[in-house]
Design a protein that fits this description.
By secondary structure, the protein is an all-alpha fold. 78% of the residues lie in helices and 0% in strands. The protein has a single domain, classed as AhpD-like (Up-down Bundle), CATH 1.20.1290. It is built from five helices and no strands.
């Protein structure tokens, strides 16, 4: 399980990327536009797209991705039950390493949502 606090991690990432946003304005603006377009509701709703993004972050072992996407999912009203069901798919597709990052995603969800209960 991770030993860091995800809200602090995403704040640190944002702070450390500030100079890159200033020096690489076109690239960072392009990335923001890509994110906005990819995550916009369409045939697939925005919450499902966030769940997919989090699943990719978990299977790619990206703690920052976990923090940012869990935070977005909480804002969208994702339930812990929905999160846990998606994590089951991550473990199926990513094995043991995905299981370790699934634990991290649960910890981030609990910390950022104020939840400590499980759906089981």
């Amino acid at each position: 399980m991770s030993t860091f606090e995800h809200q602090h991690l995403i704040n640190q990432i944002s702070t450390h990327l500030a100079p890159l946003r200033r020096s690489q304005t076109d690239t960072m603006t392009g990335f923001a536009q890509l994110s906005k377009a990819a995550m916009a509701a369409g045939s697939i709703d925005a919450k499902t797209k966030e769940l997919i993004a989090l699943a990719i972050g978990i299977t790619q072992h990206c703690s920052g991705c976990i923090g940012f996407h869990v935070k977005a999912l909480i804002k969208m009203g994702c339930t812990k039950q929905e999160l846990e069901e998606m994590l089951g798919v991550c473990v199926y597709m990513g094995g043991g390493p995905a299981l370790m990052y699934a634990s991290e995603a649960i910890a981030a969800f609990d910390a950022m949502s104020g939840s400590t209960s499980t759906s089981a």
